[in-house]
Amino acid sequence: MEYPCEISYGKAITTLPLNPTGLGKLLCAGLNTVPCFASLNQSILNLGTGISVKEAEQILKILCQDVKLSFHKFEQLSNIKSAMDLHLEEQKVEHIVTFCEALDSMLDGGIPLGEVTEFCGAPGTGKSQFCLQLAVNACIPKCIGGVEGETVYIDTEGSFIIDRLVDIARSAVAHCHQVSVTQGRHGQSQCDLTMEKILESIHCLYCNGYKELMAIILLLQKILSQNQKIKLVVVDNLASLFRQNLNDMNLRRLLLATLAKTLLKIAADFNVAVVLTNQMTTKIIPREGNSHLIPAIGDTWAHVQTNKVVLSVDCHGDRSALLYKASNKKETRLPFEINNDGIRDFIHSYTQVRQPP
């Protein structure tokens, strides 16, 4: 019985799961790399090394199995994509609109699927309002430019206000039907979106501590594999759980690293938009004798998100959104407003600036 091995790489046999006695005999015979065994059979191996025929057969099986695994890995590497492939894929990325046209334009169409986006801001800047608006808009039918999906909404602070969600959903339904009519699609015949359908598409989970949050996040992969209609995962608010209930800094860093890795994998593997909200904290600079606000949780977490939008409200009550981090956009600040209908464009023009939050 022969085990032909057409091998072209010099992998050392010491890396293979061979028994010490047989390995020693092979090395003494000068057979120290995998290519040395090409075209050998168990009889030749027995005569040349003194290894029994049965043991020689087992060694060749291990060698050939290793070759198959190596070729399988090579086949996986052969699926490497060119820059053009990646560019074309990026053009096909779906987005969930915010109903703030200026912000959607700033993000190339809205909140992208397959990526992690974070909204940061002090209390009252509109973080939860954006989450509610996106949960509603994730249900918009594809016939008018939506992703026609469902949402998993993880609420950690009790900011999921159903009455506010109903107001936003009612306005979204009216807006979508108007768009459908404007495009010549005649209302319900093409756009059958209803408030009831929106509310049924949003699955809300409440958690009171970081342990519950980690458990939910780890279960998300199973949830998403069972319901492929889900296009949005919201965690509102992430910072509160880790800042208030976890004083062990090493454990906090470990949990945040696990959370970051899991959320990035979920976004990419299931092509869903992951939206997080984060608080702001004061960073003191002793050398300069001043301080400024930065997103909370720490420097390590600051590099997790693909996109980061910082929300703020000035002394006059005017709201603005700063695109603080994006893979292919420069920092841009624009105004927006929150009214009874939800998130909308500010009525005046906006300017682009480069300025830290």
Automatic annotation (TrEMBL):
Molecular-function annotations in GO: ATP binding; ATP-dependent DNA damage sensor activity; crossover junction DNA endonuclease activity; four-way junction DNA binding
Source domain of life: Eukaryota
Matching InterPro entries: AAA+_ATPase, DNA_recomb/repair_RecA-like, HR_Repair_Mediator, P-loop_NTPase, Rad51_C, RecA_ATP-bd
SUPFAM superfamilies named among the record's database cross-references: P-loop containing nucleoside triphosphate hydrolases
Biological processes per GO annotation: meiotic DNA recombinase assembly; reciprocal meiotic recombination
Record flagged with keyword Protease: no
Keywords: ATP-binding, DNA damage, DNA repair, Nucleotide-binding, Nucleus
Pfam entry (one): Rad51
Occurrences of domain RecA family profile (ranges): 92-280
GO annotation, cellular component aspect: Rad51B-Rad51C-Rad51D-XRCC2 complex; Rad51C-XRCC3 complex; replication fork
Location(s) in or outside the cell: Nucleus
Protein name (Swiss-Prot/TrEMBL): DNA repair protein RAD51 homolog 3
Organism: Elysia crispata
